[in-house]
Amino acid sequence: MSKIDFSDVVIATSTMAVVMGVVTKILETKTRDHRLHTILNFAWLGMMLLSMLINLAGYETSYSTIICLTVLFAVQRSKGFPPARMLSIAFVPAAFVYLINDFFLFLTPNFFKDNKDYFDTARGFAFMWVLGFTIYAQRQAKRDKVVRDKAEAERRIIEAKKQELEYQVAERTAELRKQKESLEEALEELKTTQNQLIQAEKMASLGELTAGIAHEIQNPLNFVNNFSEVSVELCQELQEELDKDDFDKTYIAEILSDISQNQQKITHHGQRAASIVRGMLQHSRASNGQKELTDINALADEYLRLSYHGLRAKDKTFNADFKTILDPNLPKIEIIPQDFGRVLLNIINNAFYAVQQKAKQGIEGYKPTVTVATKVNPQEDLIVTITDNGGGMPESIKTKIFQPFFTTKPTGQGTGLGLSLSYDIITKGHAGTLEVESTEGEGTEFIITLPLK
Amino acid sequence: MKILVVDDEEDVRVLFEQRFRREIRAGEFDFAFSGSGEEALEYLKGQDLEAVLILSDINMPGMSGIELLRQIRSKSPTSPPTIMMITAYGDVQSHDQAMALGANDFLTKPLDFTELKQKLKSSL
């Protein structure tokens, strides 16, 4: 058994430690591969034991092969890391040279001794190669590290910005969600308010109607009362005549005819009053959205009269001519009577309001007139026009009149919803159109078009 | 004397003819009817105004009863015909306006035909 050459062990161990120190730095094992870092850091211990064993066994070696193979092991584990490639270029040829060297040393020691100079030279070149490429690899690694550090710094900045953006997005999303919720609440409130306003508008227009309705009901009721009284008188006359011995048959027949006529008149005016009350109830009732076959002429006439009497009752000095030019051959049409009546009432009320305002100016010879006309046009549309010779309106107002809450009336006299609701009722509820033509100072015409087909 | 009833309600004619059938048959009352102020003015053109009594509704489309009164009285404020105004709106304003324009009487609907008969008889 040979003695241990400690100087040999120390050189091998320290060389291993130095080389591994350099390799760990180049390969950045400390941050990249903790396990490899530990292995390389303790490689000197392995080398120390191994060199001692080799010494004890009496073998001779340069230990460079072991160091090279350890480096190649580290390079293999760091595959893909750019500096590892440079290290592999440095150590693969050297390892090859050292392996050849050891191969001949162990197997053909004589040949090795005979050619020792060549082997020494080869090892010398291998060492120079390793040294040169290692230094180069180290520098390259430093440059790469700077680039990677820079890239990392940029990545971190981007990451930080990304996180900041994500935070901002999250914050903004939460804010938007909150806004969405509050908007939804506001929308619900608006819908409720809108329904209340629609109801208020209906009640307001009903209020405007009240005086007109009272007048319209009063008239037929007067006729009912008067014709009833006359009928009672006629019956008395009839009785008186029958009590005579020589009663006049022709006179009796005449009285009976009058009584019969009166009964018809009573029925007619009773139905007229009932129809007005029915209309009023229909107007105040929420629309059920059901379309009914309706006589537009009768509806237009009814609402024209109601509107006129309503205004007349409110302002006793007011008087206007109202005309109807109704097409006697107008077909009945499927509409929602309450809704369509509301439209007519709104527009007719506005027309009377316009002529009333103009009449107040005291223009000589001015005859306030509102005309409602019906017809069927060549395209087979039913047309209802409401025309007034009031003050008309400028273009700037004409473009706004169908907007909700727009009104030219003084505060408290109009909700500004009448025409807006009318527009919706005609266009959305009846697939028709509502248009306005107006000349300032001359008057306004509203044209309702309803498709018959 | 002719009694001209001016009212846009068509059944007024039937009502008057039946209500005053006895007076008509007896030749006490002689009615004429107009459906509007304009029609009434047209009718009056060919009439002796002293032999006409007008019974006019105020509230009519087109020419109102007040306007009719104004036009008749504008020619002769105090002379005939006798004009009685009728309205469904028994308001002070209409009454004062009619009387100021020269109406001889002011009646409100529903008409009391007994009272009207007396008024007509006393005016004729």
Automatic annotation (TrEMBL), chain A:
Taxonomic lineage of the native organism: Bacteria, Pseudomonadati, Bacteroidota, Cytophagia, Cytophagales
Name assigned to this protein: histidine kinase
Catalytic activity: ATP + protein L-histidine = ADP + protein N-phospho-L-histidine
Coiled coil, from the record: 143-203
Swiss-Prot/TrEMBL keywords: Coiled coil, Membrane, Phosphoprotein, Transmembrane, Transmembrane helix
Molecular function GO terms recorded: phosphorelay sensor kinase activity
CDD domains, alphabetized: HisKA
Organism: Emticicia aquatilis
Main enzyme class: transferase
Domain Histidine kinase: from-to ranges: 212-453
Ranges annotated as spanning the membrane: 6-27, 39-56, 90-112, 118-137
Keyword Transmembrane: yes
EC code(s) of this entry: 2.7.13.3
Keyword Cytoplasm on entry: no
UniProtKB/TrEMBL annotation, chain B:
UniProt record, GO biological process: phosphorelay signal transduction system
SUPFAM superfamilies named among the record's database cross-references: CheY-like
Residues annotated with 4-aspartylphosphate modification: D57
A Pfam family: Response_reg
Superkingdom of the source species: Bacteria
Record SMART domains: REC
Residue intervals of the Response regulatory domain: 2-124
Swiss-Prot/TrEMBL keywords: Phosphoprotein
PROSITE patterns: RESPONSE_REGULATORY
Protein name: Two-component response regulator
Organism: Emticicia aquatilis
Lineage: Bacteria, Pseudomonadati, Bacteroidota, Cytophagia, Cytophagales
